[in-house]
């Protein structure tokens, strides 16, 4: 499978992420409290993963409700 262009993938999500799962300005400030650039990037990825899991669970719950009436 070809590797995804990171910048294109990121830019394609602008305006499409539900605000409940997006990175807020406050989140950015909190992440930036760590002065180690590696930790900032790593923690940002982890935060995104957690938000993605939260969105996936919400979608699964929504589908169960729709299916079960």
SS-based structural class?
mainly alpha
For the CA atoms, what is the radius of gyration?
Answer: 15 Å
Number of helices: 3
Please state roughly what percent of the residues sit in beta strands, choosing from under 5%, 5-15%, 15-25%, 25-35%, 35-45% or over 45%: under 5%
**What is the helix/strand order?**
HHH
Assembly level: single chain
Sheet with most strands? none
Shape: extended
How far apart the termini lie comes to 38 Å
Which stretches are low in confidence, meaning pLDDT under 50 for 5 or more residues running? none
Give the tally of β-strands.
0
Mean pLDDT: 90
| Helix residue percentage | 55-70%
Detailed description of the structure:
The chain has 69 residues and is mostly helical. 67% of the residues lie in helices and 0% in strands. It is built from three helices and no strands. The longest helix is centred in the C-terminal third of the chain and has 32 residues, at 37-68.
Question: What labels would you give this structure?
Answer:
69 residues, mainly alpha, 3 helices, 67% helix
């Amino acid at each position: 499978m070809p590797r995804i262009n990171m910048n294109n993938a990121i830019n394609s999500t602008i305006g499409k992420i539900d605000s409940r799962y997006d990175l807020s300005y406050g989140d950015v400030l909190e992440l930036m409290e760590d002065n180690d650039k590696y930790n900032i990037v790593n923690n940002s990825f982890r935060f995104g993963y957690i938000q993605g899991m939260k969105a996936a669970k919400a979608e699964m719950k929504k589908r169960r409700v729709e299916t079960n009436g």
